[in-house]
């Protein structure tokens, strides 16, 4: 397995959300599934979160 950086993008009604994470996977498809599962797991377990970086233009 190789370490892969995955960027997932979701287009929402009022903006775009990106999730960037590193996963262990043998293929791109496996990496995307692992990243999606990691995101869902993270959102289920966290009570409160905030953005820690921003860019205004």
Structure description:
The chain is α+β, with helices and mostly antiparallel strands and 57 residues long. The protein is 32% helix and 39% strand. The protein is built from one helix and two strands, in the order ββα. The protein has a two-stranded antiparallel sheet. The longest helix is centred in the middle third of the chain and has 18 residues, at 28-45. The radius of gyration is 13 Å and the shape is globular. The termini are far apart. The model has no long low-confidence stretch (mean pLDDT 96).
Topology:
Blueprint: E1 2-12, E2 15-25, H1 28-45
Antiparallel strand pairs: 1-2
In short:
This protein has 57 residues and is α+β, with helices and mostly antiparallel strands. It has one helix spanning 28-45, and strands at 2-12, 15-25.
Provide key terms for this protein.
single chain; 57 residues; alpha+beta; two-stranded antiparallel sheet; 2 strands; globular
Look at the structure and give the mean pLDDT.
96
Helix content: 25-40%
Fraction of residues in β-strands: 35-45%
Q: How is the largest sheet built, in terms of strand order?
A: 1-2
Structural class: alpha+beta
Radius of gyration: 13 Å
Q: Pick out the low-confidence regions.
A: none
Shape verdict: globular
Give the distance, in angstroms, between the N- and C-terminal Cα atoms: 39 Å
The major β-sheet equals: 2 strands, antiparallel
Got a strand count?
A: 2
SSE series: EEH
Number of helices: 1
